[in-house]
Amino acid sequence: MKNFIKHDFEQRTSLSSESKWSLLLSTLRSISEALKLSVIFHILRQIIHFGSWRIFPIALIRKLRPPLASSDENKQSLLGIIDEKEIAEELRQNSVSVIGLLPPEFVARLRQITDRLPYEEYQLVHQINNEVRLLTQDPGIMKVLRAYLKCEPVLLEASLFVSKSEKSLPQDGQNSFHFDYAGWESLNVFVYLTDVTENSSYHEVAQGSHRDVRFRDIVRGSLSIEEGKQRFGRAIQPITGPAGTLFFENTEAFHRRNRGNERRVMLNLLFASHQSLLSHGRASPEQLEIRNQAFKSLGVL
């Protein structure tokens, strides 16, 4: 069985790496950055994405891609018993919903690997790790996604962020308040794989801010910490918790990473209402090779 799973993962990895379209888009992104066109292109995409007309493609996607009825929904979820409609409503109002802790034995299996990984951002980890793959298919997570998106969700990213102490490092874009987007609607599933305290690089989100992305925000792309605190005030929610803490978040909400003084490992699953042409090529062949080499060095690939 172990050999079968390993062979299956190797097949998935090979197919992903050899995708011509993904490789083309990854190359075009690199060229765009080299020519300093990526910022202009990014702003134009955001103007289109956040325009008032977005209600029409969202409605069309929900009509063409309604949520699928799955027999897996009756299976036990790693989230335990949840009310997906209540969680979806909390996300619509507050941008974020902290669910709680994953089973300790599940987290322990993941940490046998993640505790030994060097500092890096690892892409498409579900292709090479069974626990992450199970999370991407978890019936409870799928219930929440379907209730919120009102269509059949698509997995775009499964990233593992292994961060070192940032106190002595200069501030980067992730430390400022910013927003992301994918498809016409999207949700992040975050899982802490280390204990995250007030001294760590904890995640911070401005509640309800996915409904307050302004034109000036689209052009600028981010807010300084001071600007964010002045604008959002008490709506800012720092999220801390022990390893295994899982939370959902609207991708378009303003959020940031605190500059902590401890190692932090966080898994990020990005789901969207659909996969557009531009959603391909998010992970370059070089990034996938870094991932593969790191996991091979641990004897888990």
Helices and strands in order, then pairings?
Elements: H1 2-17, H2 20-34, H3 38-49, H4 55-64, H5 84-94, E1 96-101, H6 104-114, E2 120-122, H7 130-136, H8 139-149, E3 154-163, E4 177-178, E5 186-192, E6 203-206, H9 215-220, E7 222-223, H10 225-232, E8 236-239, E9 245-250, E10 255-257, E11 264-272, H11 285-297
Antiparallel strand pairs: 1-9, 2-3, 3-11, 4-7, 5-9, 5-11, 6-8, 6-10
In short:
It contains eleven helices and eleven strands. The chain has about 300 residues and is of the alpha+beta class.
Describe this entry's structure for a reader.
This protein is of the alpha+beta class and 301 residues long. It has one domain: q2cbj1_9rhob like domain (Jelly Rolls, Sandwich), CATH 2.60.120.620. Residues 1-18 have low confidence and may be disordered. A six-stranded antiparallel β-sheet has the order 1-9-5-11-3-2. A three-stranded antiparallel β-sheet has the order 8-6-10. It has a two-stranded antiparallel ribbon with strand order 4-7. The longest helix has 16 residues, at 2-17. Helix 5 packs across helix 8. 40% of the residues lie in helices and 19% in strands. The radius of gyration is 19 Å and the shape is globular.
